[in-house]
Specification:
Elements lengths: L29 H24 L2 H12 L9 H11 L3 H21 L3 H9 L13 H14 L2 H11 L14 H4 L1 H5 L5 H28 L5 H4 L10 H10 L7 H11 L5 H13 L5 H15 L13 H15 L9 H8 L3 H14 L3 H16 L8 H18 L2 E7 L15 E7 L15
Antiparallel strand pairs: 1-2
Helix pairs in contact: 1-3, 1-4, 4-5, 4-10, 5-7, 12-20, 13-18, 14-15, 16-18, 16-19, 18-20
């Protein structure tokens, strides 16, 4: 049912986000560009105002009148605005307008915890009216564009914002890694600023939840009362996740991963780029025990790095070269074309050594923190590639992503994990038995006794 249109006299003009993203293609003449820009601003202003002050049902009804029904029944400034945009006959302009409007609503409803409204917004695009034939030229054009939008990557990206609020972990296995699937959205500068903000906010919320859930799970894992108080394991690794965490945390002393990265950074400050590439391979394979694997990784990476930016070989290494090199290195280990898995990724995964691959990636990020975002985008590319396969056919890839998730949560977040031996009865001392150790988690910088997320006397 259509609603009475919001009166233009009631609109409170606010500061709109960066309007440069509304600029139109050069195909439109200057007059048309200005006219459509003003039409876009009219719609954005309306939605920005009513989403803050009106009930979601009212806002959704207006959104539907604008973008599904084309509001032929009313005569108002906002009605004329949507007609001007459709009449301009530029699908890209319409798509950008639609996306920006969607994310204006998503951002505001996320802040207000109106999660059901976000679901209903996405469900609007299932309206049967979109498939109905019409004699109206503008309405026919609009519905064609809506169908194209529904079948596009843009709509798939929009649907991600409803996954977080589904009960349980229903749906496709890739939904468990939504925090990574959001990365390409917020690093793509061609996306509306509202979309990038929404994607970054949701990704952080999901990472924070996983970080807390993992800390709580490990803190209670060895509790004598765990049958009644054990939090849910947030990973897909089962109880094996505890041994993975213990192996990661056990790397202490002079040559832990962080110290090793700092030593490497200090020792390579003033060398040439050519020398740096040679040292980089040595750094990555340092402390790997499998000699055959070391030789393979060393040879493959050396072959890739030797010709890389070789016109800079005689220059001193600098931050720009470091970041670009680390980004290329990440691609060699994950996906070189951002579509298919790389050769080295397949080799390491099929040899059932996902932890070694994850450690290589960790070592790269530890010497170049800005490269983490690029790495997470590459992980998203891998997930997108493998999501075409059923879960049972790509368990080895899922296992890699799970270990990656755990490792980077331990090393790159603000929770500190400590390993404490609780059983000193073994006499030989020749073999590490992980059940003799307990993991404690604590917020970094928190030195209070009650800072532990677990209970020491459990």
């Amino acid at each position: 049912m259509n609603v009475m249109w919001y009166k233009e006299s009631e609109i409170i003009m606010g500061v709109l986000p960066d309007d440069s993203q509304s600029e139109l293609p050069v195909e439109l003449n200057t007059k048309a560009r200005l006219l459509v820009n003003e039409s876009q601003k009219t719609i954005y202003t309306l939605l920005l105002d009513i989403v803050k002050r009106k009930h979601p049902s009212f806002v959704l009804a207006i959104f539907k009148d604008l973008f599904i029904n084309l509001a032929d029944h009313m005569n108002s400034t906002t009605t004329r605005a949507i007609h001007e945009i459709v009449a301009a006959n530029n699908e890209e302009v319409f798509r950008n307008t639609l996306k920006r409007c969607c994310y204006i609503l998503v951002n505001n409803w996320e802040v207000a915890r109106q999660h059901q409204a976000i679901r209903e917004l996405i469900e609007i695009f299932s309206d049967s009216a979109i498939s109905k034939k019409t004699t109206s030229v503008n309405l026919s054009r609009l519905r064609k564009w809506l169908k194209n939008f529904i079948n596009s990557k843009d709509y798939e990206e929009l649907k991600i914002f409803s996954l977080k609020h589904e009960e349980g972990e229903k749906g496709h296995w890739s939904y468990r890694y939504t925090s990574y699937l959001l990365v390409p959205q917020y690093i793509d500068r061609t996306n509306p600023v509202e979309q990038r903000k929404a994607a970054k906010t949701l990704a952080k919320q999901l990472k924070d939840k996983f970080k807390l859930d993992l800390a709580m799970y490990t803190a209670r894992a060895n509790s004598v009362e765990k049958e009644n108080t054990m939090p849910k394991n947030p990973t897909g690794l089962g109880d094996e996740v505890l041994n993975v965490i213990k192996m990661l945390v056990a790397r202490r002393g002079q040559f832990n991963y962080v110290n090793l990265a700092n030593i490497f950074t200090q020792q390579t400050q003033y060398i040439t780029y050519k020398e740096f590439k040679i040292s980089l391979v040595k750094y990555l394979i340092f402390y790997l025990n499998d000699k055959d694997l070391v030789m393979l990784i060393s040879a493959k990476l050396s072959d890739k790095l030797k010709p890389l930016y070789e016109n800079h070989d005689n220059e001193e290494i600098n931050n720009l070269l470091l970041q670009k090199t680390c980004q290329r290195l990440i691609e060699y280990l994950t996906t070189e074309n951002h579509q298919l898995p790389s050769e080295l990724f397949l080799v390491l995964i099929f040899q059932k050594t996902p932890l070694i691959l994850v450690i290589l990636l960790l070592k790269i990020v530890l010497i170049c923190k800005p490269s983490r975002l690029h790495l997470e985008a590459c992980i998203a590319d891998l997930i997108r590639y493998y999501e075409q396969f059923p879960e049972e056919e790509c368990q080895w890839v899922i296992n890699f992503v799970e270990i990656f998730n755990v490792t980077f949560t331990i090393y790159a977040e603000d929770v500190e994990y400590n390993l404490v031996k609780i059983n000193n009865d073994r006499a030989d001392g020749t073999m590490v038995e992980w059940e003799d150790y307990r993991v404690f988690s604590q917020l970094k910088g928190d030195t209070k006794a009650d800072g532990n997320l677990g209970e020491k006397d459990s």
